[in-house]
Write a structure and sequence with these properties.
mainly alpha, single chain, 5 helices
């Protein structure tokens, strides 16, 4: 679809020829907010590589999928929002990973392992005397 030659900026006539479209189409896309080429000191439109990639996407929507200008605008806006949301999600994941690492480091003992005494749990309804008596009965029964 395109024949790009290196980096730089292209004037409207060159871009129109590269993509086989009329310069008025490019002006329309700019007027509708689909493209935002930079301007030279003489107010000439200059299209960068990024602008050309966006134009290729616009043309594929229009030519290949038959999407009208309003639809293209909606699709481009949704695409930009999705990219922003993806960036926010990446930043959030990075933040969570850092927090987990910090909290894990804070939770680690400073001087090695420390023994922790464990309490002995006696089931409800039993006290220590009943448990000892029952153990003695069981031991006597086994000796018989």
């Amino acid at each position: 679809m395109t024949k790009r030659r290196g980096k730089g900026a292209y004037m409207i006539s060159v871009v129109a020829e590269m993509y086989d479209i009329h310069p008025q189409t490019l002006r329309l896309y700019e007027r509708e907010g689909l493209l935002k080429p930079s301007r030279s000191d003489g107010n000439t439109r200059l299209y960068t590589e990024e602008d050309l990639k966006r134009l290729e996407f616009i043309l594929s929507l229009a030519r290949d999928l038959g999407v009208n200008i309003a639809g293209i605008g909606i699709i481009l806006n949704m695409r930009e929002r999705m990219e922003q949301m993806q960036q926010q999600m990446q930043e959030f994941v990075k933040y969570v990973q850092q927090e987990v690492l910090i909290r894990a480091q804070q939770a680690m003992p400073k001087e090695g392992l420390v023994p922790v005494p464990r309490p002995v749990v006696i089931p409800p309804g039993r006290n220590a005397e009943n448990a000892a008596a029952k153990n003695a009965e069981n031991a006597a029964g086994k000796k018989k």
